[in-house]
Design a protein that fits this description.
Residues 92-105 have a biased composition (Low complexity). By secondary structure, the protein is mainly α. 57% of the residues lie in helices and 3% in strands. The radius of gyration is 44 Å and the shape is elongated.
Length: 819
Amino acid sequence: MSKPHALRGVLATLISESQSPLTPEGIIREFRATSDRRLPACELINVLKSISEKRPNFEEVTEEISHILLNKDPMYALLVFVERYRELELSSPTSSSTSLTNMSSPRGSKTSSDGNSAAGSVCATSVTAGSSRVSLTQAQDFPTSTPVNSKKSSDSENSSVGFVRRGAMERNRGSGKDERNDLSVIKERVLSAVSDQSLNGYRVATNKSGNSPKSSPNELVKLTDVPDEYRTNLLWEYYKVDGGKVPRRAIAAMPLPSQESMLLDELLHCLTGVRESLLVPQKPSISAVGLAKYDVDFDIHTQLDCSLTHVVREILPLASYFMGVHKIVSATDGLGQVMNSLNEALLELIHDFYLIIVQAEEELRHNRLTLQKLLYYLQPTIWVMHEVWSSLVIIQLSDSRDAEVLTFLHERIKRLEGNNDAQKLIIGLVRKAAKPYMRMLQLWIQKGVIVDRHQEFLVVDNEVIHRDELPEHYSDDYWERRYTLRDERIPSFMAKYSDKILRTGKYLNVIRQCGKRVMPTQEMNLEFDPTSERHVSVINDAYYFAARMLLDVLLTENDLMGHLQSVKRYLLLNQGDFTMQFMDACEEELTKNVDHVLPMTLENLLGLTLRISSARNDPYKDDLHCELLPYDLVTQMSKIMKKEESWQAQPRLDLSGLECFAFTYEVKWPCSLVLNHISISKYQMLFRQLFYCKHVERQLCKIWKENSIAKQFEPQAASLYRAAFTLRQRMMNAIQNLEYYMMIEIIEPNWHIFIEKMKTVENVDNVLRLHQDFLDSCLKNCMLTESSHLNRSIFKLCKICLKYCEFIQVSSSARAPGG
């Protein structure tokens, strides 16, 4: 029975004993599954328990397998499990006579009698009486994991050499021998299997008694860079194995055709990372820097013919390039989606390289290959692999990742003009490396979603909050800060379109938060092609779709312009009759100290005024509310201009209700993006100055009415009031001209410009910009900026006017009884 069948046979026997519904194929499939699809270790143990619980040594084996699963490959654990239940069979006299299964070498050479004797000696020493060790040659044929060079299963099935990934199968309970010895023996045999001696390569030097000599780890194997248990996952990397080699004839004594044949055989092995005797890699220099760090130099046997040596020197750089690419793929594995995708493309390239080597071996087997012909075949590959190798080394030395890698490869394409083969290869690598990046980009511009576990995308979501979790006093900075660009994550070919990309996803997020479904009008297929600009048209289409859809949501479905008109009507005193009626109703309440003003009373008077004035037809009148701020206008102006938010926690000043009063306007999402907290605060600054001026004007008008009694005075007495009346009129003119200037010459023209520009606006960012420009222009020209000191003068002027009115009123009331 062959060894894979032996594995299935033991499992079938255990299954039949336990009458389990499982099958051998199902168990092997679960243990061979990759880590992301494999059952947990505890469930794998339960599977083995269910089929072996009737065996006498069931608990002992289960405990051993549990320990193995913690540190080893599950398939290795299954092999040990099966062998533990085959110990009685293996320790029988017939088992020791088991011979190696014949393995054909890559060159297809025939098995010699020496090979048979070597195989017999190995098998004879693999199992001893009373030992629980498993034959390495038996374990070698069990199907485990495949190496990198067998990436595609369809091609690996044709390979005649089996590789084992996780170390040796044999274990000796209680033995203190280093288990790396077993792995070293496997490596020696696999390396020997690809030599021209076929089964002779498996020979281990034996003593006269037929027992295998005990070799120390230092004698069997010499490590280069990485530990044994990880090396077979990647490549051989000219791994040095010291073992029983078949002695060869002196190279100098061989004729030239024989030298060439032997050299070709070793050269093909050297190109795939296998160490040979004629072509020996030099030890890497610890002080090597730059490209030399990933370069491999070779020492060529000095007894080779000079003509052969010259040709081989032209081919050997390909082995260095191949090994350098392999090292970089190993070093960058798992460093982000872009690097993983690039490594996948490189592994496909390596697979194609192996196919070339296989074809060359086939030619060599039929004696149709020479060094000159091999050089001719490999010359284009040498040029292309040099470009790939140098590009990858530069990427590795500069520690480039994600977008930086795409930028470098994209610029490399431009520098390869004239070298069509290398350029096409780099273009293919860029396309495949950019696939995960373009998938993230497509999700962002199509759905407004960021799926970026490795922080590789150009847009970052700084705070993931939902519409219901928005802060009460957020500003337009939320719109700017929620999603931002990371310049170091922008590939050079996306730099011109990064702003559109950012806006597209932001628009889609606002649309989604409005409860609307984001459905593009056409299916997007976003792929990066360095030879065309097709991805640009996809980005533009997505941008215009999102911009039009969000504008339609804002302007049509949520009537943004209607809300802006209402804000202008109330906060900029555009509704004249409402303003006067409200001041008449609330004047008495607002003259009190702010601590004595009742906000509920103001709200009731506001609701009454809205319903008896012409504002009753406004559909958004209920969004207007009263607010008593804990600071005066000058303080508010200073805080707003400095963008401070801590002013809300400050204690209230000793102010009247009139100095603290302001209207506020509440809107729902998404109009709150435009009419946000900062925008409403700016409207409040304009309102408070206009409202205060209106109050001063009303007080001056009251003085004029009360002083009309002076007309009844005698001319001599009336002349005493003339100076006071003149001062009052000058105050009236100043206040009215100030109101006229702010309302007619500043607010109205800027509002007209804002409305005209809104008719041609294309996106929400322009809406925000135009709205902020309108408010900033009004504040600046109304002298409500920190840089302007006129606002404090205006505020003092209004205070003087109110003190004058209070003085006149007191004087009139004092004179009235004696008049």
